[in-house]
């Protein structure tokens, strides 16, 4: 299948939270188990801000820390294990082998991954990729997929 993508402008932080909320609602409608989401963009692009909104909208009530030093923060939301990764500090993708990276990806988990390029070769392909570009205060979220169900969700998001 060809890649499908939509670009959404989120210049204000509340628009990023709103996008996270709408996406979470759409994904919940189809079941969030087994999803892998890549979050790409420079330092300060808004990956963690998006993730925070997304986790809260999925139903997480507590705080959401950036996993910068821990590499991964686990959440248990409605019987689904949600893993929020930040691989920025990974020196070598091989470190993921020592973490037992494969065990994080299964039908009952959703993985949100900041800096997925740092884990190149050891991560599964994403069901959804978000690339955040920013220039001053202007932020554009490009969401792309090559999965039909996800494409259907993105089409709704676009409207
Ligand atoms: N429209 C916006 N969307 C998201 N964040 C915004 C927006 N406008 C301003 N910000 C601010 O930009 C910063 C984004 O930081 P955030 O930690 O989310 O980035 P990040 O992409 O996770 O960076 P890192 O690569 O360091 O983990 C926050 O301080 C947030 O308040
Ligand atoms: Mg971050």
Helix-strand layout with pairing:
Elements: E1 4-9, H1 13-30, E2 35-40, H2 47-58, E3 72-77, E4 80-86, H3 95-98, E5 109-114, E6 128-135, E7 138-145, H4 148-158
Parallel strand pairs: 2-5, 2-6, 4-5
Antiparallel strand pairs: 1-7, 3-4, 6-7
Helix pairs in contact: 1-2, 1-4
This protein binds adenosine-5'-triphosphate and magnesium ion.
Structural description of this entry:
The chain is α/β, with parallel strands linked by helices and 159 residues long. The chain is built from 4 helices and 7 strands, in the order βαβαββαβββα. The protein has a 7-stranded mixed β-sheet with strand order 1-7-6-2-5-4-3, covered by helices on one side. The structure holds adenosine-5'-triphosphate and magnesium ion. Residues 47-48, 66, 86, 114 line the site of magnesium ion (MG). Magnesium ion is lined by residues 47-48, 66, 86, 114.
